[in-house]
Amino acid sequence: MRxxxxxxxxxxxxxxxxxGWLVIPxxxxxxxxxxxxxxxxxxxAWASDISYMLYxxxxxxxxxxxxxxxxxxxxxxLYRLWSPRVxxxxxxxxxxxxxxxxxxxxxxxxxxxxxxxxxRDERAITSAWLPPIYPFKFVMPVATALLLIQGVSEFLxxxxxxxxxxxx
Length: 168
What we know:
Blueprint: H1 2-20, H2 23-39, H3 47-68, H4 84-119, H5 134-164
Helix pairs in contact: 1-3, 1-5, 2-3, 3-5, 4-5
C-alpha cells in the first residue's frame, strides 16, 4: 500500500511542480499589459484572455498538489482531538461518499464540455483576436483526473490510519 501511495503522491507532486511554472508567464503577461497600458497608453487585446487562461490552468492544476500538501480547507476543531483511527475512518467515509462521486461527476461533465469545445474549435469571443479556448477547457478534465488520483492516495492513507492507528 505504501508503494502505491508513493507513486500516486509522486504524480501530484510532479504535476504541481510542472504547472507551478505557469506563474512566470502569467506574471510576464500582466507586467507587459500594465507597462503598455500605463506608460505607453497602448493596452493589448490579448492580455486579459491569456491571463485568465493561465491563472485558471494554474488554479485547476494546483488542486491535486494542494490536496497532497493538506492545503485545502478543513474544519479541525473536533478532528484534531480524535485518534488517527477515527480521523482515518471519517476521512475514508467522506472520500468514498462525497469526494469520489463528486469528482467522478465533474470528470464526466468536464470531459463532455472540453470535447465539444475541441470538436467545434471553440474560440473566446471576449476579444477581437479570438483565441482558441478548447485547450483551456481541456485543463478541467485533466486536473480532475489528477485530483482523483490524489484522492485515491488520500483514501489509501485514511485506510492505513484505520488499520494501523498511525498516519503514513
